[in-house]
Design brief:
The complex is a heterodimer of chains A (358) and B (307). With 358 residues, chain A is α/β, with parallel strands linked by helices. Chain A has 11 helices and 14 strands. Chain B has a single domain, classed as ABC transporter involved in vitamin B12 uptake, BtuC, CATH 1.10.3470. The chains are: A alpha/beta (358), B mainly alpha (307).
């Protein structure tokens, strides 16, 4: 008899808990990732942002994620599935998800979407990105000083404005401190393919590059540089501190956590609206990883001064006089680039060899 | 365009490294096909070898142990194929394809915890004296041990197939399994051993990618190398030294493609990216128009003692 009572009491308690849980239906936040969360770069940092959201909100928020989602048709399916599964807010974290995100968003007007690094907005789609090119300017400064062969290798991913901005910003600042510097660019046509990234890094090193910049997400180029010995690299998207102090001498670190927490809070409060966010070093969205001792103190000081000037808004990474690759004038002396031109950048600045693949 | 920026010595040295995984897998498959079995599961065995080799390398800290584990894993997986096609008489093409799909899935499952990890890699051998020879030194004598193992395997397979009794029996089984059976040779046993050898070689090839060439584990990282290995066996007309040639040719094109791009050769990237595949197809077409394949007579046919 006693045991029956206990059972009943337990059942009543359980029902009580279930009721409480249902009343506080957690906000569901979804993430679509282009690589695996263990890539050590881009997707790793987005996942850190996701974990920060979980940490911050505790039981009030539930997060789900899908990793290694190819850009293109399959992305639409993955995003749709997440929306159908009851997500209230979905972050799609790669450029190639732009059109799929908009297509799914049109079908789910009550779900909020946030697309990273894109430029197409709608009523329930916000866009957000970081001014990574500010970090590239710092990298270019260090690269220009550090190269002895005057050849800087650049592993580019896709010929989109985001990547071209990075190449230009790095080149302008490398050239500023080292007029003889030359950039060799390999288009890998992938965000994440360690085998190809390793081969590309090796090809660049064999052709004399002693600095490797990468716009791909894996640590494979770091490993290739480490094997080669006297080649320096920079962490991409994540600190990649495992490879410091050599070859990794510094890094660009993406910090999405504050943004993800703020946007989740907006959904919970019902204040979410479609916005376009583009923050840089100043707002903390772009971090410059510790500059290692492999870099001479005066170069380090110069790079840090540049970082601080960019953060304070005293200096813009694209400040004239600047000329386009074809020789036409772009920015007059002291003029700074407007965001519209930067967002759609499809040209190299003067001095870079080669053409942007079309 | 600055072709003089490409250092031919370094290029040849790096094409040897790039070709080694394909070479290992292809020489194993040559032996399997010489015994009359078509195993299309090379890709699946390679990727399984890649993940097992990586996992053992990470946990033990020894890349050599990783390679041993990868060979065992490749051979074990190939035994699954062997039992199905030799004892249960299943269709070799379908079973091989199934093995590839199975291997891709299995490796993704095993590899999940290892993504983004670092692994100790094989040190390069700097052979004293020999490595100091100009031109030849950097090309031939400054590689990691597995490059030499792969060339050694080519030599061994060539010698065994051509000049030993075991090689003769293996070829007899592949050319005409009924006749070999009538002569009293154990067709099933010979084939099972050949399949295990092929699996071990594919496993080594996969582990070379995850332990030396990249070195990292990523889902699906063999990226079609197993299929190229299969094509190279046909391209080589089942001859070991031609397998070496075919593998180095292919490895050379992938590396050359990136080198040309870095040197600023104004050929659209897309052409360069597809060139290895186009050349492989062209060579295959060329060989089949000549008509003489040199394919083993019983290749792909099911053997049963009662037939």
């Amino acid at each position: 008899m006693r045991s029956v009572k206990t059972l009943l009491a337990t059942a009543a308690l359980a029902v009580g808990f279930a009721g409480a849980a249902a009343a506080e239906d957690p906000t569901k936040v979804g993430f679509i990732f282009v690589g695996p969360v263990g890539d050590g770069g881009w997707t790793y940092e987005h996942n850190q942002g996701r974990l920060a959201v979980e940490d911050h909100f505790g039981d009030a928020v539930e997060t789900v994620f899908q990793e290694s989602v190819p850009e293109g048709a399959d992305a639409e399916r993955a995003i749709t599935q997440m929306a159908l599964a009851g997500a209230d807010l979905i972050f799609t974290t790669s450029f190639g998800y732009m059109d799929p995100t908009l297509a799914v968003a049109a079908k789910f007007p009550d779900v909020k979407f946030e697309h990273a690094t894109g430029y197409k907005q709608s009523d329930n789609v916000s866009v957000y990105s970081a001014r990574f090119y500010e970090g590239r300017a710092v990298q270019g400064t260090i690269a220009g000083h550090m190269t002895k062969s005057n050849i800087v290798g650049y592993i580019a991913s896709f010929p989109i404005p985001e990547v071209i901005r990075g190449i230009n910003a790095a080149y302008i600042h490398a050239k500023k401190v080292n007029p003889d510097v030359q950039f060799k660019i390999i288009w890998a046509y992938t965000w994440f393919d360690p085998a190809k990234e390793a081969d590309a890094a090796k090809a660049l090193i064999e052709q004399g590059a002693d600095v490797i910049l990468q716009h791909t997400d894996s640590t494979a180029p770091q490993a290739a540089a480490q094997e080669a010995g006297n080649v320096i690299t920079f962490g991409q998207a994540s600190d990649m501190a495992d490879y410091g102090p050599m070859p990794r001498v510094s890094s660009i670190i993406d910090n999405w956590s504050p943004y993800y927490i703020a946007r989740t809070q907006a959904v919970i409060d019902g204040t979410w609206s479609s916005v376009s966010t583009w923050d840089g070093i100043g707002a903390g969205m772009v971090g410059i990883g510790d500059i290692s001792d492999a870099v001479p103190a005066e170069v380090k000081a110069e790079a840090e001064a540049l970082r601080d000037a960019l953060a304070a808004g005293e200096y813009h990474a694209f400040t004239g006089p600047l000329t386009k690759q074809d020789g036409s004038a772009w920015l007059a002396d002291g003029e700074v680039a407007d965001d519209g031109t930067l967002a759609g950048m499809n040209f190299y600045v003067q001095g870079i060899d080669g053409e942007i693949p079309q | 365009m600055n072709l003089d920026q490409i250092n031919p010595i370094l290029l040849i040295a790096s094409l040897m490294v790039a070709a080694t995984p394909i070479l290992l897998a292809a020489i194993g498959e040559t032996v399997v096909e010489k015994a009359g079995v078509l195993n299309l599961g090379v890709e699946g065995m390679m990727i399984t070898g890649a993940v097992v080799g990586f996992a053992i390398g990470v946990n033990s800290g020894s890349p050599a142990l990783g390679f041993v584990g990868a060979a065992i894993a490749g051979a074990a997986l190939s035994m699954l194929f062997g039992v199905l096609v030799l004892y249960l008489l299943s269709n070799q093409v379908a079973t091989g394809l199934g093995l590839t799909l199975f291997g891709l899935g299995l490796s993704a499952l095993i590899g999940k915890p290892y993504e983004g990890m670092k692994v100790p890699t094989l040190a390069k051998w700097d052979i004293p004296l020999l490595s100091d020879i100009p031109v030849l030194g950097p090309i031939l004598f400054q590689h990691d041990p597995m490059v030499y193992v792969s060339i050694g395997l080519i030599m061994a397979v060539w010698y065994v197939l051509k000049s030993t009794r075991a090689g003769l029996i293996l070829r007899a089984v592949g050319e005409n399994h009924d006749a070999a059976h009538a002569l009293g040779y154990k067709v099933i046993r010979v084939r099972l051993m050949a399949i295990a050898f092929g699996g071990a070689c594919a496993g080594l090839g996969g582990a070379y990618i995850s332990l030396v060439r990249v070195p990292q584990w990523v889902e699906g990282m063999t990226a079609g190398a197993g299929w190229i290995a299969l094509a190279i066996v046909v391209f080589a007309s089942w001859r070991p030294w031609r397998v070496l040639l075919g593998a180095y040719l292919f490895g050379g094109i992938t590396v050359l493609q990136l080198n040309l791009q870095a040197a600023g050769v104004p050929i659209p990237v897309e052409y360069l990216s597809m060139s290895p595949y186009v050349i492989t197809i062209l060579v295959l077409v060329l060989i089949s128009t000549r008509g003489k394949h040199g394919a083993p007579g019983s290749l792909g046919r099911i053997f049963h003692a009662s037939h």
